Amino acid sequence: MLAQRCDPIRVAGATKIYPAPGGTLITALDSVSLRVRAGEMVALMGPSGGGKTTLLNLVGGIDLPTRGEVSIDGCITSTLGDDRLTRLRRDHIGIIFQSFNLLTAWNVFENVELPLRLQRKPHAEIYRRVLSALESVSMDHKADALPSELSGGEVQRVAIARAIVHQPSIVLADEPTGNLDSRNQDTILRILSELAAKGQTIVVATHSPKVAMSCNRTIYIEDGRVTG
Ligand SMILES: Nc1ncnc2c1ncn2[C@@H]1O[C@H](COP(=O)(O)OP(=O)(O)OP(=O)(O)O)[C@@H](O)[C@H]1O
Ligand SMILES: [Mg+2]
To answer: Ligand 1 pocket by C-beta < 6 Å: which residues?
Structure first.
């Protein structure tokens, strides 16, 4: 079953337990299994505290499961060790965080070029790719602006440019349209759909039925379990 083995995202019986104050434990994910195929755009829905961000952190290699396995492009994250996991994350994953995490002292261009600098790409390539990523989110005219000079929708679009500038095979987005008006929501959904059409794999955690309707399918997660 080569096709299945090559699925860019595979989660097999993943459980994530966090220590909580008072020596108790929180089971944020409980034996979750799923696969996402290349070019799929999948919505992750469910109540607040259900485990969506925890699952994205595992699928993005930011965190490791307490039990079970997560594979990113065929690599099992818990077997890699820190250096290889960092490289896998750097080269294969783009993340749009729930809070956008742009660096406030850096302008738009500098924020977006970060993944390419980490990959030590040549200057000319960095320049070309950053401009192309900014053009794809219609933000090339604001390359010199600081994040504090941007609207919420513009910050979001820059965060997307940074997540896609190194052309990762997997793009993860945590509430990418939260607090945005419907025009900006539509723009972001269009950008993500275009990435999926080009073969990139997209997982979007969202509370918005409209976002979910733009995806190929929806995975529901509640109390750490996949419910549908
Ligand atoms: N670092 C952590 N330490 C302890 N508990 C955590 C940690 N991160 C998440 N949790 C807990 O794990 C559970 C799942 O949280 P998670 O952030 O994954 O939910 P979510 O579905 O993303 O919610 P939301 O829709 O509000 O963003 C919650 O009970 C949360 O309090
Ligand atoms: Mg969350």
So the answer is: 18, 20, 26, 28, 46, 48-54
Choice from 18, 175, 207, 222 to test ligand 1 binding pocket (greatest atom count within 8 A of CB)? 18
Pocket test for ligand 1, best of 54, 172, 204 (most atoms within 8 A of CB): 54
Is there a domain that residue 3 lies in? no
The set of long-range contacts for 189-196, using a CB threshold of 8 Å and a minimum separation of 24, is: 189/214, 191/136, 191/137, 191/157, 191/160, 192/41, 192/160, 193/41, 194/136, 195/41, 195/164, 195/171, 196/39, 196/40, 196/41
Domain membership flag for residue 126: yes
How many domains is the chain partitioned into structurally?
A: 1
Give me the residues near ligand 2 (ion), CB cutoff below 5 Å.
52-53
Residue 119 sits in a domain whose CATH number is: 3.40.50.300
One digit per residue, pLDDT tens: the chain, 228 residues?
344 458 999 999 999 999 988 889 999 999 999 999 999 999 999 999 999 999 999 999 999 999 999 999 999 999 999 999 999 999 999 998 867 679 999 999 999 999 999 999 999 999 999 999 999 888 999 999 999 999 888 888 899 999 999 999 999 999 887 777 888 888 888 989 999 999 999 999 999 998 999 999 999 999 999 997
> Whole domain around residue 210: which residue ranges?
37-63+79-226
> Residue 187 falls within a domain, yes or no?
yes
Nearest atom, ligand 1, residue 175 CA: 27
